[in-house]
């Protein structure tokens, strides 16, 4: 199954801006990989909360539509809130 997540490039980086994003229902993330520049991204929490419950989310290639351009990635790491059903940060690697 293929998953598509719309995202935007994130310009403000840091703890304060990440907290503001989470309060607004968004999730900060990063895409990195060997030989490519790391890109800070942000996407809606509702776009990932349901699809990440599927087992093949972590093993299949995902498509992130980043500012109108499709990027193939894989989920590398995900930080979750301690007791709330919330995702706090996601790391992706280029596929």
What is this structure, in a nutshell?
This protein is mainly beta.
List the helices and strands and how they pair.
Elements: E1 3-9, H1 15-23, E2 26-33, E3 36-44, H2 45-49, E4 62-66, E5 69-80, E6 87-94
Parallel strand pairs: 1-4, 2-6
Antiparallel strand pairs: 1-3, 2-3, 4-5, 5-6
Region (Disordered): 1-21
GO biological process, one term: translation
GO molecular function: 5S rRNA binding; structural constituent of ribosome
Describe this structure in words.
The mean pLDDT is 92. Helix content is 15%, strand content 52%. It has one domain (3-94): Beta Barrel (Ribosomal Protein L25, Chain P). The protein is globular. Strand 4 (62-66) and strand 5 (69-80) form a beta hairpin. It is built from two helices and six strands, in the order βαββαβββ. The chain has a six-stranded mixed barrel with strand order 1-3-2-6-5-4. The chain has 95 residues and is mostly beta strands.
